[in-house]
């Protein structure tokens, strides 16, 4: 039987399909293939004892290759001009791609090291966007602070709860600055209310406003039943409801964010009381107003 050594034929890429069937050389005409015929190998006896035919095979190989290594061919890893089998010291296996695709260039198109990297670089997490610190609004309105309610004022009258028809009834209303704490727009705040005046609804369809709450006749040095900034004369007798509403300005303090002045005047809770108006008739007295200008009914 004819045995063709792999060391002789190497691979099909060295010769174009040299195919010698394992049969007797005497049957060369039946075993010769077109490829063997082109290489002039038909009919040769390549048995170890037939040195002449083996030398002819070597000569044919040298003639076919020009005495050099085989010419390059597509897809053949040995197809280089001076290819030699790799040794353990020089052979580098291809990169292992089981852990991910091979990355050879960085973001700047530069080669990563001498060889391609076998691991994909860890993705760089983008820096989180800066968190905007919430700040209170620059403008605070009266509606915004509606939940902050100052105390109602106190009311006193001269005479106390009763008056004479067509004669002044003096009123004294008092209020004071107040600071209330709480929360506004999600921020802790304090709101300071400062008195800015009073509104008097006298109950007879008359409404007035003053910048202060008034004072007693004695305090301001005036005679009884004399008109003042906070007095009113009723034209008809009867019972009326006097309602006094305090007016305030307000400032909201947001602490480290500063203060905000609320635009406008804020009405606080009102206080009310009933006033009885009676008709007064003149009576004989021991002195008239000329003799006693400070007497009742004298002005």
TrEMBL record:
It comes from the Bacteria. Residues 63-95 are annotated as: Disordered. Keywords: Signal. The keyword Signal applies. Residues 85-95 have a biased composition (Pro residues). Residues 1-17 form the signal peptide. This is PKD domain-containing protein.
